[in-house]
Design brief:
Elements lengths: L7 H6 L5 E5 L38 E5 L5 H13 L5 E5 L5 H6 L11 H12 L6 E5 L6
Parallel strand pairs: 1-2, 2-3, 3-4
Protein name: FBD domain-containing protein
Length: about 140
């Protein structure tokens, strides 16, 4: 499993970023036997990162997270971004888009994206949990055709 915390190094390397778009995916077409033979095996490097509280990004205003699934590591990442970005005004959480290749496999599309109002409220509470409150927006996926 790939750990997204390594991307926080981007904020240290590029302190002028105002909008950060992160996309994670787990496509059916990219897993196991469903993967076409022409696809190369993907390597999953292990990253260990010390979460350094001394490097704030004061310019980051918007974080967009595509492929949000309410996973613990995603909450950890978003809360770290909140801690490091005191001027963050908006967090956009997007569902994972299903691609044409996944669609062609006709496999049910499991999703852990918070669709119901009570699920979204729980996510907002987990993200904010005593911290300042940027706007949090949820977007469900539209299927690619």
């Amino acid at each position: 499993e790939f750990d997204i915390l390594w991307t926080t190094a981007l904020l240290v390397a590029a302190p002028s970023i105002e909008m950060l778009h992160i996309e994670v995916w787990e496509h059916t077409c990219d897993v196991g036997e469903a993967r076409p033979a022409s696809y190369h095996d993907r390597r999953n490097p292990r990253w260990e990162m010390h979460l350094d509280s001394s490097s704030e990004n004061r310019l980051l205003k918007e974080l967009e997270f595509a492929g949000f699934k309410s996973l613990e590591q995603q909450f950890t990442f978003i809360r770290y971004m909140l801690e490091q970005s005191p001027n963050l005004q908006k967090i956009v959480l997007r569902d994972e888009e299903q691609c044409d290749d996944c669609d062609a496999l006709k496999v049910p599309r499991p999703s852990r994206f918070p669709r119901k109002e009570d699920e979204q409220e729980m996510v907002v509470k987990r993200i904010r949990d005593g911290m300042f409150s940027p706007e949090i927006i949820f977007y469900e996926a539209t299927f690619m055709r």
